Amino acid sequence: MKNFDSFWMPFTSNRTFRNQPRLLERAEGVYYYKPGGEKVLDLVAGLWCCNAGHGHPKIVEAIQSQAAELDYAPHFNFAHTAAFELAEQLTGVTPAGLDHVFFTNSGSESVDTALKIALAYQRERGKATKTRLIGRERGYHGVGFGGISVGGIPYNRMQFSTALIPGVDHLPHTHLPEKNAFSRGLPAEGAYLADELERLVTLHHADNIAAVIVEPVAGSAGVLVPPVGYLKRLREICDRHDILLIFDEVITGFGRLGAPFAAQEFDVVPDMITTAKALTSGTVPMGAVFVADHIYNAFMERPGSAIELFHGYTYSAHPLAVAACRATQQVYAEDGLFDRARELAPVFEDALHSLADAPGVIDVRNYGLMGAVEMAPDDGAPGARGMRVLQAAFDAGLMIRITGDTIAFSPPLTIEAAQLEGAAEKLGVVLAQV
Ligand SMILES: Cc1ncc(COP(=O)(O)O)c(C=O)c1O
């Protein structure tokens, strides 16, 4: 392998990578394999995706046979039946009342789709002034212009600052290390941070606000678990002011927290849920936006027969993705993987918190099979320690995810307790060396 210039790698220091490439050749179960055959335990489900593990035979078979039967079908004015069947199947897993699915190809597309539906819905019901969108600091909602505008990760916005969409505000993030460090599960302090939404309503008036979008557990900014009562309070304020609430469940969707969705786990039902990643266990790109009945009906009850929503993708409900998704959902159900995530959560929690006293660790947090170990940054070089740990862990046969100096974990739901405990031990050695 000599040419590292042609493939411009995403969210990567390309110039650093070529000096020390971390290459993966194949995957099976909870392991990746390097080109030389050395195994690497996958502690992030690829990139928060592969909840059913890698190479599940039923999913592989479904994709292979679909490719041979129907390679592609357009969904503008035509459709293949399996797409309708899948949509119905999926709405059996979502919270009651979220009974409609708009298919996309990624989390970013799901987010931009949900934001567009929110704006179009407000117009559709005669509230055309409700146009403002509210995101949250440290939120990650993908890389579309809508997503980076409501997102709250400074570097993801900075290079494109002149093109961010107007009329967007941000709630404060919920990370309060001075009060909540080393929390197990939901941190106790911080529900009051939801009240900032009231302040924004006072400032702009509810007549001008379309929707609020948050990740129930913020993932990419380093696994920020919501304080007890926070999400319920957001829902109440949205209800009070007739504002839509969107949960971005691109990471939390499909069992990561034990329930199918965070909405069920935290007993807070939003008006839309955005998903991708584990929808197909990462096997074929696919996203989906789950939409509440009242939103869908507002479009469908309109007189006439014009197109209701001027939006969609060539690959919405691509047959390979549909086949992968149906098989994945079947595997989740048959193998009881969401229950398994719930059962493993205490082992995962103990494994992560066993690193609390490792050198440099300043916080450990977790919920379900999602967690983080945060390290103090090197003086004047944030992120440098994180990259050293990433490399050392990879050399030791562990795949982790790094955001700044925080190690994020989201193992496949198929992982074994002993593998989690063994990984924590190995990582303890890595942290002591780096
Ligand atoms: C919460 C959330 N939303 C959106 C996205 C974007 O998804 P994608 O990379 O598939 O566009 C991600 C990706 O990590 C995510 O975590």
From TrEMBL:
<dbReference type="InterPro" id="IPR015424">
    <property type="entry name" value="PyrdxlP-dep_Trfase"/>
</dbReference>
<dbReference type="InterPro" id="IPR049704">
    <property type="entry name" value="Aminotrans_3_PPA_site"/>
</dbReference>
<dbReference type="GO" id="GO:0030170">
    <property type="term" value="F:pyridoxal phosphate binding"/>
</dbReference>
<dbReference type="InterPro" id="IPR005814">
    <property type="entry name" value="Aminotrans_3"/>
</dbReference>
<comment type="similarity">
    <text>Belongs to the class-III pyridoxal-phosphate-dependent aminotransferase family.</text>
</comment>
<keyword id="KW-0032">Aminotransferase</keyword>
<protein>
    <submittedName>
        <fullName>Aspartate aminotransferase family protein</fullName>
    </submittedName>
</protein>
<dbReference type="InterPro" id="IPR015422">
    <property type="entry name" value="PyrdxlP-dep_Trfase_small"/>
</dbReference>
<dbReference type="GO" id="GO:0005829">
    <property type="term" value="C:cytosol"/>
</dbReference>
<dbReference type="GO" id="GO:0008483">
    <property type="term" value="F:transaminase activity"/>
</dbReference>
<dbReference type="Pfam" id="PF00202">
    <property type="entry name" value="Aminotran_3"/>
</dbReference>
<keyword id="KW-0663">Pyridoxal phosphate</keyword>
<dbReference type="InterPro" id="IPR015421">
    <property type="entry name" value="PyrdxlP-dep_Trfase_major"/>
</dbReference>
<keyword id="KW-0808">Transferase</keyword>
